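In this section we walk through a basic example: taking a raw amino acid sequence and producing a predicted 3D structure, encoded as discrete structure tokens. The instruction is simple. Fold the sequence below.
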Amino acid sequence: MSRDLTSKYWDEELETLPREELEKRQLADLKEIVKFAYDNAPYYKRSFDEAGVKPEDIQTLADIQKFPFIDKKTQRDTQGKGSFLGELAAVPEEDVVFISTSSGSTGVPTMSPFTKKDFDEFQDTESRWFWQVGMRPSDRYVHALNFSLYVGGPDVIGAQNLGALCIWGGTLPSERLLFVLKTYQPTVIWTSPSYAWQLGEKALKSGIDPKKDLNIKTIIVAGELGGSIDATRKAIEDLWGAQVYDFYGLSDIFGACAAMCEAKDGLHIAENHILVETVDIHTGEVLRPGEVGELVFTTLRKHARPLIRFRTGDIGWIDNTPCSCGRTHGRIHISGRKDDMFIVSAVNVFPSDIEAVVRELPGITGEYLIRVFEKGFTCKYSVEIEKNGDNPKTDEEVSAEVSGALKARIGVKPYEVTVHPDGGLDTRSEHKSRRIIDERKLDYSI
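The resulting token sequence is shown next.
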């Protein structure tokens, strides 16, 4: 099918559906997927029966609140039970054409299976996001994401389906990736925000000016919160002379489930595929749109392994008000991971808040490390940062400046701020960077 290359929409009808029509379609898909899950997935049959609910109870979108939650533990506990695909799967193995797995960073890796229809719709959504951030068939695209079982690996097919020239970079060493960027002059790249920053720094140190010697116009970032932190995004944009757009995905569903548009006011989520709820992290009570809590997703069209009320562990909120770009699908705003949040003097602290401060202040590199620990049976945090080589201030002055800025932003001062020289922190990584070390022994679970 021929497309209007001047249109900012991949699928204008879908992306600009009136809210009432979008929710009407969601309800039809919700009824179908809940019944499909009940009829075909052993876990859902057992779980729904134990909760005293049945598919016919879905008469409105709000009726999903009657059904029980699932989470990562549910996935781990049911994986491999009864069949290779486990008790959450709703199709036989012969219907599955692809599986990815989670990283396993917070537990046993969990698999995410796809039927051919699931996979094709997944890639059409990726094409939609690529188009949304301006990619066109004339672009050259470097997919600098891990291909080893990672759900983001196949997203490159969405770019190919759009018509872009695709370079399957994967996890190349920095020197090799810079060679690719300089030799082939691609216009778009996708990587993590920390690596986009570090790659730009390495380019400068090797005599390559990202703004002058390279041709990158668009940088897509995902896997960390940096792309949705204004200070981090602006720092990367200034370094590369390119526009940065944040994507959000879950191995449990598919590659990128949500993406920024040109307004850069949250990430439009594919509401034709995902029903979004926000719940209180303590009670599970459903919150109104705009209220901050844990995001809960129900897949509306994924049949290999439907996810009914999946607690993502991500803290944020959804905005269903009209976006200036004209798209009507809601925008999610992510504050951080429930696992990463810590409480100091009754204040919820997210690493993203600390990053925002560190990336805004002049005279420091933007690298940081957070340590969370106990002192006097209370939770404390300290921050380690790097000072630029040309910063004339003493370490004590820099420490006081950072400490004051954190107090102003977050509401609680760090126990201490340790200042290292440029390169003194071991936080630079080819991909995701480790930013927080939890040294607590007591149970601070929320």
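Looking at the output, two observations stand out. The CA atoms of residues 159 and 244 lie 17 Å apart. DSSP finds eleven helices and 19 strands in the chain. In the next section we compare this with other chains.
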